[in-house]
Amino acid sequence: MTLEVDLYQFNVLEGVIDYAANLLQGNRAKIQKELWERNWKKGEQMKLHKLASVTPILLAVLSTPSFADNVTKASGGSIKTVLIQDIVLNGDSSLTREWITVHDSIIPADIEGTAGVTTIYERGRNYSNGDYKYTSEFTLTSSEALSAFEVRFLTFDIWGDHVRNLSITKIMDIPAGEQKKITGKWNVYSENEVSEYYASIAYIAQVRTASGQVIKADPKVVLEEARKFTEKFAEGDLEPVPEQK
Fold this sequence. Notes:
Layout: H1 3-24, H2 28-37, H3 48-62, H4 65-68, E1 69-78, E2 81-84, E3 87-89, E4 96-104, E5 109-111, E6 118-122, E7 131-142, E8 146-157, E9 162-174, E10 179-188, H5 191-196, E11 197-209, E12 214-216, H6 220-226
Helix pairs in contact: 1-2, 1-3
């Protein structure tokens, strides 16, 4: 088998995979465009009916959770929270927090890398009237034009108990292929909650496309990750609740 044949077969396989992946996501216009733009030699282009014959197998593979959904993890930094220069919450701890992000192939948008939640203390005029906050900064990339999205962060304490769901909803136009830097901030009214916060799971809960379609995340992988902290985590626990003082 010559190198030329090997390269040809590689290009054909690459085209088939692209075709199946885009079909899985409903990007039929992109499929048609890419099929005709590929620079295969005359007589070597794979006809559409041949692509269709292998597509069901590829779709079955691409639809499995291990392929369709990707989970990334990263350190969320120290569990310490600086209040003022000489006062640090959890100052004697060497623990680092865990950040987990679920990248759902159903959603036509994605969180870049691994996003998570940190804790800060915003000082007032004096130490005693400052406020604790959860904060997060991340980049969202859209593969389709969007008009709104919601990102959620599930938080867990050092004992593995589910504590809160932090939600950020943005109503804004995002063209296909564009990146947006997003910042979220939430009040925390308990010093104990800040002290014991250990891990977060981030995911895009839902989006509204520019055409008006609302697409919600598949909760399966998020639930699997949450149940690694606490087995009693239920699907109903994914819903955000109103902030309470």
